[in-house]
């Protein structure tokens, strides 16, 4: 299969012809929550662009199925078990990934859970779990990967480190509060501010940390809701009255992971079909 994913077809503008390709050959990407939905698609997309991908989550059988699919297309994939609520599991998964695939260049920090409840009904254990996965989990995964990236960058001659890329998958709910998902929105707002703090602290080591804020994409996290009356009303309230597919985030993901995106750091990129406007 082609090792270079072309996102921008050549176009003509007067006498100039321009094309743009993003090649991730030789890069290693670690994707959390690769067992379904967005993570699964992020892994396919990065592998198609030439990256070796490490598929991390708790449901190992699903990761193995995805690995087989990627390998059947000529890609390179490895599976690791990961529970982001457990810092020992995070340390072991990252160490295992680097032993098997080499240094991680790209982290897609994507594991997440939803909670649909009015604020007055949220129980303490539900609050803790959403924060443990979405905020605390994302923090310690990024910290573990970044420590290793920083150590490598210090071993390089000044200015020669190619750089790490960390994409924290937040949500448009981290930017705009919506009814009945207040605690989820709080957990994702934390991811956005976390992204800025990491970009500030780690930028000097050649690591770029950016947040991707998807709008509604049809995955296991929300599939049940689109046929309900509330779900249909929600779709009607969207600027283009449609729910996205995981592939709709490919271009945004690739831009944030590209070697060429070295000047993009601390950005909060909405890919929400205008929902946040
Ligand atoms: N779909 C949307 O509309 C949308 C919009 C904005 C943001 N997002 C965000 O996008 C990310 C992916 O969501 P999705 O839509 O793809 O939902 P999904 O299909 O439910 O996927 C969630 C992923 O998170 C993983 N996960 C959950 N708890 C985990 C834990 N304790 N340790 C490790 N991994 C864990 C799951 O893997 P295992 O269960 O196998 O561990 C699964 O692969 C989430 O952060 C979500 O908040 C989604």
Q: CATH homologous superfamily?
A: NAD(P)-binding Rossmann-like Domain
Major beta sheet, strand line-up: 5-4-3-6-7-8-9
- Stretches where pLDDT is under 50 for at least 5 consecutive residues are 8-12
Helix content: 25-40%
SSE pattern, N- to C-terminal: EEEHEHEHEHEHEHHE
Q: Helix/strand-derived class?
A: alpha/beta
Bound molecules: NADP nicotinamide-adenine-dinucleotide phosphate
**Could you tell me the strand content as a percent range?**
15-25%
**Beta-strand segment tally:** 9
> So what's the CATH class?
Alpha Beta
Mean pLDDT: 93
How many domain units? 1
Number of helices: 7
What is the overall shape?
globular
Walk me through what this model shows.
The chain has a single domain, classed as NAD(P)-binding Rossmann-like Domain (Rossmann fold). The termini are far apart. With 277 residues, it is α/β, with parallel strands linked by helices. The chain is globular, with a radius of gyration of 19 Å. Helix 3 runs parallel beside helix 4 and helix 4 runs parallel beside helix 5. The site of NADP nicotinamide-adenine-dinucleotide phosphate (NAP) has 28 residues, from helix 1.
Element layout with pairings:
Blueprint: E1 5-13, E2 16-22, E3 28-32, H1 37-48, E4 52-57, H2 60-72, E5 76-81, H3 87-101, E6 106-109, H4 124-154, E7 164-169, H5 182-202, E8 207-214, H6 229-236, H7 250-257, E9 268-271
Parallel strand pairs: 3-4, 3-6, 4-5, 6-7, 7-8, 8-9
Antiparallel strand pairs: 1-2
Helix pairs in contact: 3-4, 4-5
The chain binds NADP nicotinamide-adenine-dinucleotide phosphate (NAP).
């Amino acid at each position: 299969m082609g090792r270079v994913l072309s996102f921008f077809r050549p176009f003509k503008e007067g006498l100039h012809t321009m094309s743009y390709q993003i090649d991730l050959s030789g890069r290693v990407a670690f994707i959390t929550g690769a067992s379904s939905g967005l993570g699964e698609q992020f892994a396919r997309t990065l592998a198609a662009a030439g990256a070796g991908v490490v598929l991390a989550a708790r449901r190992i059988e699903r990761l193995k199925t995805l690995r087989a699919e990627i390998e059947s297309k000529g890609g390179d994939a490895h599976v690791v078990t990961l529970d982001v609520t457990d810092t020992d599991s995070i340390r072991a998964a990252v160490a295992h990934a680097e032993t098997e695939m080499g240094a991680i260049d790209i982290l897609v920090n994507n594991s997440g859970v939803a909670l649909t409840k009015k604020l007055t009904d949220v129980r303490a254990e539900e609050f803790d779990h959403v924060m443990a996965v979405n905020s605390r989990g994302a923090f310690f995964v990024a910290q573990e990967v970044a420590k290793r990236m920083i150590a490598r960058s210090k071993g390089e001659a000044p200015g020669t480190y190619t750089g790490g890329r960390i994409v924290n998958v937040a949500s448009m709910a981290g930017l705009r509060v919506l009814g009945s998902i207040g605690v989820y929105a709080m957990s994702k707002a934390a991811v956005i501010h976390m992204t800025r703090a990491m970009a500030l602290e780690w930028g000097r080591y050649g690591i770029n940390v950016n947040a991707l804020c998807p709008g509604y994409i049809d995955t296991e996290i929300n599939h049940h809701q689109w046929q309900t009356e509330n779900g249909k009303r929600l779709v009607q309230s969207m600027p283009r009255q449609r729910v996205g597919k995981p592939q709709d985030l490919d271009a945004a993901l690739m831009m944030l992971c590209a070697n060429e995106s070295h000047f993009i750091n601390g950005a909060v990129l909405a890919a929400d079909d205008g929902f946040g406007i």
